[in-house]
Amino acid sequence: MAFIHFILQGKGGVGKSFIASLLIQYYKLKGYDVRALDTDPVNNTLAGYTEFNVDVLSIMQDNNIDSRAFDRLMETALALPENSHLIIDNGASSFIPLCAYLLENEAISLLQAEGHTVVLHSIITGGQGIQDTANGLAALAKYFPMAKLVVWLNPKDGEISLNGLSFTDFKVYKEYSSQFASVIELPRHNNATFGKDLSDHLARRQSFDAAVHSSQPIMVRRRLGKYWDDVVTLMDNANLLGAA
């Protein structure tokens, strides 16, 4: 049995590729064989992490899913070795077409019938995108009740709060929380230090391990190492291995 992770959210710029990179690093840290696909038709951000040997797969053609390309994705997933993980990063522009194709072809049920576990990862962000991301998560929960859902709260654009309500008071949480395998809230730190270091780190497209062992200033390396340690602890506490 292998594990197939789709990173799905209809809102752009919320950190899908960042979450994909965290998953790759986490499962590698835990000793698993990890493979990654970048299917974003606009920005191949994940493929920019050369350490991860990410394959690029163009699944869109004229605003529609390229069925032959998606067939190749499915063949890759179905042939995964035992206990391996496939991380699939998807772009905002292909969110609706990909979800429609998954539904039409009963792709998740097929993968599950072959003994694989399918996990859908979706991001809720703060700021102006909070309602759009909540709607995207609700769509996934509604149309894919058979799949495990992992929710990531990414406070990079502001607090995860809507009309004074925290995420656990959101309509999407109240309606679909029984389908959430876990909810992971990423750390919030001082934007002048941790925030700047993290932003620069993401622009370099490198792993946290590479950053910690780089020639950057020692305090930058310490802060990035602290952030990564905090994220690993959150993923451990969320039973991310069990959720998969």
Features:
244 residues, alpha/beta, Rossmann fold, seven-stranded parallel β-sheet, two-stranded antiparallel sheet, 10 helices, 11 strands, globular
Question: What proportion of the residues form beta strands (DSSP E)?
Answer: 15-25%
Biggest sheet record: 7 strands, parallel
The CATH superfamily appears as: P-loop containing nucleotide triphosphate hydrolases
Tally of structural domains: 1
- The CATH topology is Rossmann fold
Mean pLDDT: 93
SSE topology string? EHEEEEHEHHEHEEEHEHHHH
Radius of gyration: 17 Å
Shape by Cα distribution: globular
Can you name the CATH architecture? 3-Layer(aba) Sandwich
Total strands: the figure is 11
* Class by SSE composition: alpha/beta
SSE inventory with pairings:
Blueprint: E1 3-7, H1 16-29, E2 34-38, E3 55-56, E4 60-61, E5 64-65, H2 67-78, E6 85-89, H3 95-104, H4 107-113, E7 117-125, H5 130-143, E8 148-154, E9 161-162, E10 165-166, H6 171-176, E11 180-185, H7 191-204, H8 208-212, H9 218-237, H10 240-243
Parallel strand pairs: 1-6, 1-7, 2-3, 2-6, 7-8, 8-11
Antiparallel strand pairs: 4-5, 9-10
